[in-house]
């Protein structure tokens, strides 16, 4: 197994890189999807969130109202820390299970664990390579406005709420610069894939 941790700020091209590696044959595990799965109705994490934040964060069908919960924790570091203390360990446990399953199915698998909060959640899987997608703040803001329909002030707040890029770059083995054309991002990703194939062959 060859395990890649893929991280980067919001709208920094992470999904594009993950998709390209998947096209090359990697197994893709998306931490955002796992974060949704671990708080589905009936999960211990959802019960813990309700115990901490009250029934007001539930929809009428008993599922988590992410918007209401977001309003509760946004701008409140203590509340966010409590939420993270519930969700992050649950995601870590599920991701470890999925990584083990992928390895059991194919011992030679290349697994891309796409995890926006690699730094913030101090994810400590034994990565062979940490890949960081990087784009300047203005590009991130522009993409959030143009591609996701946020207004510029919202977009700036979303970018600024995340860890500073220098903390990510400090743990990077490979940085993919996504500020240029899509083709430029793809060619860097293809070069990364060739490197992975070579490293795997040497093992």
TrEMBL record:
<protein>
    <recommendedName>
        <fullName>Dephospho-CoA kinase</fullName>
        <ecNumber>2.7.1.24</ecNumber>
    </recommendedName>
</protein>
<dbReference type="InterPro" id="IPR001977">
    <property type="entry name" value="Depp_CoAkinase"/>
</dbReference>
<comment type="pathway">
    <text>Cofactor biosynthesis; coenzyme A biosynthesis; CoA from (R)-pantothenate: step 5/5.</text>
</comment>
<feature type="binding site">
    <location>
        <begin position="11"/>
        <end position="16"/>
    </location>
    <ligand>
        <name>ATP</name>
    </ligand>
</feature>
<keyword id="KW-0418">Kinase</keyword>
<keyword id="KW-0808">Transferase</keyword>
<dbReference type="Pfam" id="PF01121">
    <property type="entry name" value="CoaE"/>
</dbReference>
<comment type="similarity">
    <text>Belongs to the CoaE family.</text>
</comment>
<keyword id="KW-0963">Cytoplasm</keyword>
<dbReference type="GO" id="GO:0004140">
    <property type="term" value="F:dephospho-CoA kinase activity"/>
</dbReference>
<keyword id="KW-0173">Coenzyme A biosynthesis</keyword>
<dbReference type="InterPro" id="IPR027417">
    <property type="entry name" value="P-loop_NTPase"/>
</dbReference>
<keyword id="KW-0067">ATP-binding</keyword>
<comment type="function">
    <text>Catalyzes the phosphorylation of the 3'-hydroxyl group of dephosphocoenzyme A to form coenzyme A.</text>
</comment>
<keyword id="KW-0547">Nucleotide-binding</keyword>
